[in-house]
Amino acid sequence: MEKDQLSEVVSFRISAQLLARLDKLAKKEMRTRGNMIMVLLNRSVSAIEVVSQHLEWLVKNLHEEEGKNPDSPQAEYLRGELHDTKWLLGVFCGEDVREEVLERVRRRTQLPMPHIVPLASDGNRYGFDSDAG
Q1: Structure pTM?
Q2: Which residues are CB-neighbours of 123 under 8 A, at least 6 positions away?
Q3: Do the Cβ atoms of 133 and 102 come closer than 8 Å?
Q4: Vertex 92, ends 86 and 93: CA angle to 5°?
Q5: Phi then psi for 12, rounded to 5 degrees?
Q6: Partners of 119 in the beta sheet?
Q7: What is the C-alpha separation between 55 and 81, in angstroms, rounded?
Q8: Which residues share a beta bridge with 125?
Q9: In b/e form, how buried is each residue of 29-62, taking b as 16+ CB within 10 angstroms?
Q10: CA distance to 24, 68, 123, per residue, from 120 (Å)
Q11: Are the C-beta atoms of residues 132 and 115 closer than 8 Å to each other?
């Protein structure tokens, strides 16, 4: 940490079970408990930008592929990856952060969020994607 960077002490309570799991992770990483907490917090904040950039890439490529053939295997693959990435973002960061990131992706790409409803076995799409648009 740089000399001019401010730091603060953070104190909180967690369950003994969670702490044991954290200590196990720290041991595997050869870190102290405190350092492991700091690293995980740092990674989680940094990951939001990485996921945002990946979502931008997916949205741009899916729009491009849908322009060629909306039902191509490549479009279906990208649609599935977009679905999974949005879902994981919600699981790890919460729905409010997920919505904020999706709005940022829409602004940066200047594109609407594509529908991720997959093709049914009859070749049609059924359902509604509330994120699309």
Answers
A1: 0.78
A2: 71
A3: no
A4: 85
A5: -155, 165
A6: 125
A7: 9
A8: 119
A9: eebeeeebbeeeeeeeeeebeebbeebbbbbbbb
A10: 44, 20, 5
A11: yes
Give how far the C-alpha of residue 43 lies from the chain's centroid of Cα atoms, to the nearest Å: 12
Rounded (5°) CA angle 70-103-84 = 55
Domain ranges of the chain: 16-109
Give the model's pLDDT for residue 54: 97
Amino acid making up residue 91 = V
Q: Any idea what DSSP says for residue 111?
A: S
How far apart are alpha carbons 40 and 27 in whole angstroms? 14
3-state SS, residue 119: strand
- List for the chain the helix, strand, coil content (%; round to 5): 65, 0, 35
The pLDDT tens digits of the residues spanning 32-45 come to: 999 999 999 998 88
Distance CA 89, CA 121 (A): 28
Between helix 73-93 and helix 95-109 the angle, nearest 10°, is 140
The total number of residues shown for the chain amounts to 133
